[in-house]
Amino acid sequence: NVTADNHRGVQAGLLNYTHKRLAGLQLSPLNIVLADSDGAQIGYINYAHGQIHGLQLSVLNVGSDKISGVQAALVLNVSDEAVDGLQLGMLNISAGDDTESRTAVQIGFVNISNQAGVVPIGLVNFVRGGRFNLEVNRDSLGFTNLAVTTGSQYFYSIWTFDARDINPDKRDLYHQDRASPTLSELGLAYPYSA
User: Fold this and answer.
1) DSSP letter string over 123-144?
2) pTM for this predicted structure
3) For the chain, which terminus, N or C, has the lower number of CB atoms within 10 Å?
4) Tens digits of residue pLDDT in 128-164
5) Can you say whether residue 146 is alpha, beta or left, with left for phi > 0 and alpha for psi between -120 and 50 degrees?
6) DSSP letter at 170?
7) Long-range CB contacts (< 8 A, 24+ apart) of 75-83?
8) How far is residue 124 from each of residues 61, 62, 128, 176, measured CA to CA in Å?
9) 172 vs 59, 132, 168, 178, 187, CA distance in Å?
């Protein structure tokens, strides 16, 4: 289905292409809008060149302007500008430098954002102006700890790895190995001023 002008309503087929604005639903394996999208794109690959107000649901979602709504993908969500809403996928990227106050949430294995106010919930989070800390410490019981913290200033993930020096002759049920598994934590910092 090819629309050379604005499209209002439903486009369903093997390929949906709207040259201007979409107000409605695109449902096919490949959906393309070259202007703003108000409504939903549902397929394997979704692309909107203008602003998105609504939903993109697929394996791969790409928006080249601001997104107000939801990008949900099995693999990848990309926004060239700021996100005001939710990105849900294995890899989420919000590349726009946001100077306005927006509420953005990214949920995935890896989240990348230029938005300082984003809430990244994932295994690894890279946020411009956010946290990226590496800590190594050793305590009096012989534990050596390595911790990696990634995320925004207010919401972040912590990965730790612990190792302990144990005499091989003194292993017991509780100290079979020298290293413990990696532990993941989520952190929340709330700015408080008196």
Assistant:
1) EEEEETTSEEEEEEEE-TTSEE
2) 0.81
3) C
4) 888 888 988 887 777 778 888 888 888 888 888 777 6
5) beta
6) G
7) 77/108, 82/114, 82/115, 83/113, 83/115, 83/118
8) 20, 21, 13, 29
9) 48, 37, 10, 11, 33
